[in-house]
């Protein structure tokens, strides 16, 4: 299965790359970066560093949008640290970004392949994807599926009382992706908040037996200290790797086809997910919205895959 990862690394974004590159079912065609957890210069540098770590300098990394469409731009350095990789800093990257803007890479790659061939794993704000859809409307029929981490139903919000971070940072882009007509799978906080990075699981990462194990453990100790404290849980949520996990093990998740919209005007609710879980609106479903997860299944698969690197 051919995928492109659109991302704002971020420790949990980098773990998503590792899972994809450890999985023979997946062919990673490239990485596109966006401003989100940290600035786009930093997310681009982080993507390059993460690929260096596992010797995959063959994967193109295209730098994308440096700000949301209309919203002022917000980072999550309080969660991920100033660099986005706090917890375990990596050496400077061995190369620069691949020439060409992320939006053009998305368009050229999707248009070169047969319709439906490529899945987009979107694990940051959705700015690049929206710009690509605006520049080349035919992408709607080219994208096989967008699998995104974002939004929430019963878990409501993590950056504001009403909104999840990726939707909040660029709410207009999130709304446009929901309305695009591209097949959509949504991994919301309802799923990710069940997957606690407990002390026992951190110990499993640390002893994976390869170079990345201790780095992943150190990253998660740092990234999750804030959320574990906020939620009072043993470890914090595991967000972005669920996108690739759903592609390789869809049997581990359950959800419902729903209509999903994103609030773009509310003073208190900007970026909120409006999920028609109960079929109240009469609007046609546009997303498979996941809410249940086999927690042990996800972690066992993650340990097994990452140990292959
Ligand atoms: C999302 O926000 C980011 O901080 C994480 O990388 C994830 O993509 C969770 O709300
Ligand atoms: Ca992310």
Using brief descriptors, characterize the structure shown:
309 residues; alpha/beta; Inosine-uridine Nucleoside N-ribohydrolase, Chain A; 8-stranded mixed β-sheet; two-stranded antiparallel sheet; 13 helices; IUNH; purine nucleosidase activity; Ribo_hydro-like; Inosine/uridine_hydrolase_dom
What is the gist of this entry?
The protein is 39% helix and 17% strand.
Secondary structure elements and pairings:
Blueprint: E1 2-7, H1 11-21, E2 27-33, H2 40-53, E3 61-63, H3 77-80, H4 102-112, E4 118-122, H5 127-135, H6 139-142, E5 143-149, H7 165-169, H8 171-179, E6 184-187, H9 189-192, H10 199-206, H11 212-231, H12 241-248, E7 253-258, E8 260-262, E9 273-275, E10 287-293, H13 295-306
Parallel strand pairs: 1-2, 1-4, 2-3, 4-5, 5-6, 6-10
Antiparallel strand pairs: 7-10, 8-9
Helix pairs in contact: 1-12, 4-5, 5-8, 10-11
Q: Could you characterize what this model shows?
A:
By secondary structure, this protein is an alpha/beta fold. The protein has a single domain (2-306), classed as Alpha-Beta Complex (Inosine-uridine Nucleoside N-ribohydrolase, Chain A). 39% of the residues lie in helices and 17% in strands. The chain is built from 13 helices and ten strands. It has helices at 11-21, 40-53, 77-80, 102-112, 127-135, 139-142, 165-169, 171-179, 189-192, 199-206, 212-231, 241-248, 295-306; strands at residues 2-7, 27-33, 61-63, 118-122, 143-149, 184-187, 253-258, 260-262, 273-275, 287-293. It has an eight-stranded mixed sheet with strand order 3-2-1-4-5-6-10-7, with helices on both faces. It has a two-stranded antiparallel ribbon with strand order 8-9. Helix 1 packs parallel to helix 12 and helix 5 packs across helix 8. The protein is globular, with a radius of gyration of 18 Å. The two termini are 19 Å apart. 54% of the residues are buried. The structure holds beta-D-ribofuranose and calcium ion (CA). Beta-D-ribofuranose binds at residues 10, 12-13, 37, 76, 79, 123-124, 149, 158, 164-166, 239-240.
